Amino acid sequence: MPLNWGVSKSLTTSWFYLLLGVTVYALYxxxxxxxxxxxxxxxxxxxxxxxxxxxxxxxxxxxNDVLLWERVIDIYPDSASIAYVNLASAHDAKGSMDAEQIExxxxxxxxxxxxxxYNLGAIANFYGRLGNEQKALEYLLRLVDIAPYNSWAQAQxxxxxxxxxxxxxxxxxxxxxxxxxxxxxxxxxxxAVIDYHYQRYADALSKLEILTPAKTGAKEKALRxxxxxxxxxxxx
Length: 236
What we know:
Elements: H1 7-34, H2 39-59, H3 65-75, H4 81-94, H5 99-112, H6 117-130, H7 133-146, H8 151-163, H9 167-179, H10 185-197, H11 201-210, H12 218-232
């Protein structure tokens, strides 16, 4: 699908308004000269037709997310970076575009606003879902460089380093995520794992205590057991 999909529709709408205006003006001139008593009726009908068509023209763009964001891009093609991201998300949700086409929309958004945190996060998430971890990390690092307060991005970077067994970097990003407001229980659990790795058993236990009991599963129980064994047998 071409990125300027809505241009022809926009031109059609513009021509309609122009022709309507010319027609109304011509009728007004004729009625003013020959039938002045009908001028009020003409104005009423014209305004009703204008409002009716405007309402129809707008509501057809609200039928679904794809049409909505295409309309925004049609109106603001050079500044609608977030609209391109949302359009990509809408197509992705519907399955109406393949990954290459969605990537094209995301790259367009990035070309308009290369430092917009929302765009960088969406692109990082897109590559993460595709399994391109390195590409996702690249955009996440750009995001936290611009917006270090973004706890979601900090936690995502921590996850990537954690999977790579880069415990030091994972811990740093997880701590930053907590500092900036993340309350993810996964982050807290993984910090407990990191504390256990560095034999900070008391810190690890204190973090496990924060976790919601209802969400404590086999992994959390296993870690607690390891910590308790380590504390009971410090020489091992």
